[in-house]
Amino acid sequence: MNIDSINNGIVIDHIQAGSGMKLYELLGLGNLECSVAIIKNVQSKKMGKKDIIKIDADIPVDIDAIGYVDPHATVNIIKDGELVEKKDIALPKKLVNVLKCKNPRCIVSVEQELDNIFVLSDAEEKVYRCMYCETKAE
């Protein structure tokens, strides 16, 4: 399989195999007018298999959302066909408007101008809880 390189844009690399679509949906990449390529189950010497997302536009991406899906991913910024910046991602301590609280009694269900804020409660298990009602994120 051959996927063309991008001239100006973003490559999200080293995504755990099978997590690329979740990241695609969480970042809202389906709403973009530019070309977006999701490459699944790519052979990797380091990981065995991985997913890659290529975005053919220089747009802002939510680093916290990427870290939530896969804290070991990398974000590569491409300008004029050259790698100009490589960002390592980490598990964020707080997520703002990345997830929505599913608890119908939570204050964010009533006060819709409030941000949906989730706080990391267990880093080993990667558990996030709503800051307001402590409901566990799914």
Could you give the topology of this structure?
Elements: E1 9-16, H1 20-26, E2 36-44, E3 48-55, H2 63-69, E4 74-79, E5 82-88, E6 94-96, H3 107-110, E7 117-122, E8 127-130
Antiparallel strand pairs: 1-3, 1-4, 2-3, 4-5, 6-7, 7-8
Descriptive labels:
single chain, 138 residues, mainly beta, five-stranded antiparallel beta sheet, three-stranded antiparallel beta sheet, 3 helices, 13% helix, globular
Give an overview in words.
With 138 residues, this protein is mainly beta. The chain contains 3 helices and 8 strands, in the order βαββαβββαββ. The protein has helices at residues 20-26, 63-69, 107-110, and strands spanning 9-16, 36-44, 48-55, 74-79, 82-88, 94-96, 117-122, 127-130. The strands form 2 sheets. The protein has a 5-stranded antiparallel beta sheet, with helices on one face. Strands 6-7-8 form a 3-stranded antiparallel beta sheet, with helices on one face. The longest helix has 7 residues, at 20-26. The model has no long low-confidence stretch (mean pLDDT 92).
Put the structure in a nutshell.
This protein has 138 residues and is mainly beta.
Q: Tell me the distance between the termini.
A: 34 Å
- Percent of residues in beta strands: 35-45%
Mean pLDDT: 92
Question: SSE order in H/E notation?
Answer: EHEEHEEEHEE
Gross geometry: globular
